[in-house]
Design goal:
This protein is mainly β. The chain contains two helices and 28 strands. It has one domain: 7 Propeller (Methylamine Dehydrogenase, Chain H), CATH 2.130.10. The protein has a four-stranded antiparallel β-sheet, with no helix packed on it. Strands 2-3-4-5 form a four-stranded antiparallel β-sheet, with no helix packed on it. The N and C termini lie close together (7 Å). 44% of the residues are buried. This is Nucleoporin Nup43.
């Protein structure tokens, strides 16, 4: 991390979500952003290009800068962005709809186009007013959405206008969602309850399994602000919270959390592992921080993961087994989203800028 280089690029939009375009054999040079809280919100496609204004002496000039290649206007705030495959992008919106977009790579001008838009996936039952779609999760071609109506909808990327299943998961708003396996989902609400859902079953047949997030104050609830599973050991569930802590659950043993970690001083807006190097976890906070959590090499590295022993399940010993480094600090406004590909991280938030960090590994 000591060799990491951070560059700041102002784009005049608050960033709700940012994702690198998937690349199998090379470092990704393209990413997408979805904006929120603007007069007009867009999904934009960016490509890193050589900075034509680099001085001859070099200095602190940035060698590559992002250029907006194309954009799609959205009807409301963008709430989530995820790739279904290398070229297909799923985007959820605060108006309760889901959109599919296709990215076309080119030598000169890349393009992004909306190819499908769902019907009204989320609405409040009593008033029938649209409810914001708050998060999406993807497994294969299945796309699950959740919203402030407390429902989870599952659609196929092949036809997002046809809802395969609707699960009335909760009586209150759901804000975080992820797949544990093809059949299992976890959804979290504002009261700190994480619910286990079966994607194959109707509402009345759903298992009554709920996990309650611990809180520093026993008289308060702890809002689940973000959620993820370990990429290769999906029984390890990590929940970022409103109070800035991280709670780790071993889904093979639901009696109590495996670990409870003090982290940020504000809500954890996003939490996720490095896709290629699963010994690294990243978190983004409401106070504008992005941290990297790295497995301590003295612990033994990947060999222990294969035995099912994870430092994240080590209870009070976690902080001795995990090193924490600040990647982005001091921005003072919310850092809403990040993504890592290879040795490069991109993140964005309410500063109306994107930050690109090279040599992150």
């Amino acid at each position: 991390m000591s060799s990491a280089v951070v560059s700041t690029h102002y784009i005049s939009e608050k960033v709700a979500r940012v994702r690198w375009l998937p690349e199998a054999l090379q470092q990704s040079e393209r990413f997408v952003t979805g904006s929120w809280d603007m007069d007009k919100n867009f999904v934009r496609l960016w490509k890193l290009q050589s900075n034509q204004h680099v001085s001859a002496t070099g200095g602190d000039d940035v060698e590559q800068i992002p250029r907006c290649m194309d954009k799609v206007a959205m009807e409301d705030d963008v709430t989530a962005v995820e790739f279904v495959d290398n070229n297909t992008l799923a985007v959820s919106c605060a108006d309760g709809h889901l959109s599919l977009m296709n990215v076309q790579r080119a030598v000169e001008e890349d393009q992004v186009q909306r190819v499908a838009r769902s019907g009204q996936l989320h609405c409040f039952q009593r008033s029938q007013e649209p409810a914001p779609c708050t998060d999406i999760a993807i497994y294969g071609t299945d796309i699950a959405t959740t919203g402030e109506d407390g429902c989870v909808n599952i659609v196929s990327a092949e036809n997002i206008r046809l809802v395969k299943r609707t699960i009335e998961a909760d009586s209150m708003a759901l804000f975080s969602l992820c797949y544990v396996s093809q059949q299992e989902l976890v959804a979290a609400n504002r009261m700190g309850v994480v619910r286990m859902l079966d994607a194959r079953l109707a509402t009345e047949a759903q298992p009554n399994i709920g996990l309650m997030l611990p809180c520093r104050d026993d008289k308060s609830s702890n809002f689940v602000s973000s959620i993820t599973t370990h990429p290769s050991q999906q029984h390890i569930l990590l929940c970022g919270s409103e109070e800035g802590t991280i709670t780790v659950w071993d889904l093979r043993n639901l009696e109590y959390p495996a670990s409870y970690i003090s982290a940020h001083d504000s809500p954890v807006n996003e939490i996720g592992f490095h896709r290629q190097d699963t010994t690294k976890l990243f978190t983004a906070s409401e106070t504008g921080e992005v941290w990297m959590w790295s497995e301590n090499r003295a612990y033994g590295g990947d060999a222990n993961w294969k035995d099912g022993n994870s430092p994240w399940l080590s209870g009070d010993r976690v902080r001795a087994l995990i090193n924490v480094e600040g990647v982005i600090t001091g921005t003072r406004k919310a850092m809403n989203s990040f993504d890592v590909h290879g040795s490069r991280l991109v993140c964005g938030g309410d500063t109306e800028a994107v930050y690109i960090v090279d040599n992150i590994a």
